[in-house]
Amino acid sequence: MFKKSLLWQLYPAYLSITVAALFIITLYLSRLLPEFYYDQVVDNLRARAYLIEQQILPDLKAKNVQSLNDVVRKLGKSSSTRITIILPDGRVIAESDENPAEMENHGNRPEFRKAIEKGIGRSLRPSDTLGTSMMYLALPLEEQGQMLAVIRTSIPVTAIEENLKHIYHRIVLSVVIVAICAAGISLVISRKISRPIEQMKETAQRFASGRFDRVPIPKQVELAELAQALNEMARQLRDRINTITRQRNEVEAILSSMAEGVVAVDVNNRIVSINRAAAKFLNIDLTEAKGRTVEDIVHNTEFQAFIQGILNDENSCQTEVVLPGRKDRIVGLNGTTLTDSNGDKSGAVIVISDMTRMRRLEDVRRDFVANVSHELRTPITSIKGFAETLLEGAFKEPEKAERFLQIIAKHADRLNAIVEDLLSLSSLEEGRQTRKITFEKASIRPVLDSVVSMSTIKAEEKDITVELDCAEDIEARINTVLLEQAILNLVDNAIKYSESKSTIRIEAHQSDDMIRIAVRDSGCGIAKKHQNRIFERFYVVDKSRSRKLGGTGLGLAIVKHIAEVHGGHVTLESSPGQGCTFTVHLPAE
Length: 589
Ligand code: ADP
Hints:
This protein is of the alpha+beta class. 55% of the residues lie in helices and 20% in strands. Helix 4 packs parallel to helix 5 (221-257), helix 11 runs parallel beside helix 16 and helix 13 (480-496) runs antiparallel to helix 16. Adenosine-5'-diphosphate is lined by residues 493-494, 497, 521, 523-526, 534, 540-542, 546, 551-556, 580.
């Protein structure tokens, strides 16, 4: 539908009312004015007729036509009036301007007939005799109830008509001027009424586009109240939008800083919100994900089925899935349905949490318990077996008894070594967690000197030389006891797995911001396939050899832990038959 602005509704209405009023007034005046003028003329003519009446009566009664005509002509001249005396049968007996003898019968003249019928007759018409427009008034002249004649007075009305025409022109001119003024005033008034409403409309449109300007308060009470209501509405809207924006920013900040992934979908399975962590878990582009369906963008059937399940029937559920990628990830999915304000299902929200580490830790713990049990069971079984054999009578044979007791003592030593190493590991872990391990800036050289002297006996047994290359001034924040234990473990291993008469080198160097302490041997070395796992607890390359050499399989795990509590790490370079180089890397501060 065609819509007009308020101004173009008000203005034509005002204008047409004004123009219609002017038109009616003009019409009324144009009718009233001639009537008024002609009434005056008629009154005038009537007064003249009465005056004439008395003056012609004697001649009329005496039927003195000549004298009557003289009187009539004289009166007509002096009063500028045409006077006609008509007998009741219509014959003109006297006339001021013409010769009555030449005049036709006036019995059919309208003013004459009206005068006969009603006692007075008037008529405005062109004169049959003179041809100009005339006002005629006819009055019967009676005496003692008998009509003697009809006196007709008339004057030309051309002057009046001229006058009226002039007045009409003026009226029309005034009406046009008034109409133009009215048009202007109507426009001003219409504008005055519509302007504040226009302003409010514009302000409301700005509200819609998010700009909350104040509406100026108009003078009209109703509009002022409307403007105040709009201003109040704007204030409340601004407050609410600010609150919503702040809350949204908070939610976004929380979501984007969460380690857990959060995905929200609508009922059509379209992603409405997704945080950075979720995009990373699902291996998708965060900027492209919004608005697309899960099937479109997440190529994991288990994940798709999980969301579909929540959307279709279940209200909430949880499961664990493996998300394939560079490193397979085990993730926990926790889903709940979303409802709108009417309580209807409007989508679902899924929280994705990384379970990989937890599951791996569980695996490590399970393996560790199994390994510990297994490692402890062997010496315990031996001790039990040999003790039982002794009890069963072997102790009576001194030679056997001594050998059995030596075996029992050896297994007890092994048990002791395992328990010692386990305790070291657990105290390292505890110290790491509780941060109870103390560190101080100290020189590395004395620690390595002490390791060399502690390993001398074992090295000499195999005729192995331990060389040390370490500058005096290398310093680091260390726990000397722990570092000593780590390097001693490495040197012990080097001695264990090296041929006799070989050389072991301990080298400490500082480069950039790292201190590297390397223990180099030329022993049997370690094959590539074992190198990744060599630092795991109880992992050994050759079980029987390790056991024979008194190993527990925990030495390198302890080294790794000690390096890590110092904020460093340990690496291995080796190939079978070429010896090993274990390097402890420590931050130089
Ligand atoms: P173990 O007490 O058995 O020595 P470790 O944790 O110290 O346990 O070492 C684990 C395994 O790594 C050893 O069993 C051995 O096979 C291998 N290994 C460690 N150090 C060396 C080395 N210097 N040369 C060759 N193999 C080594």
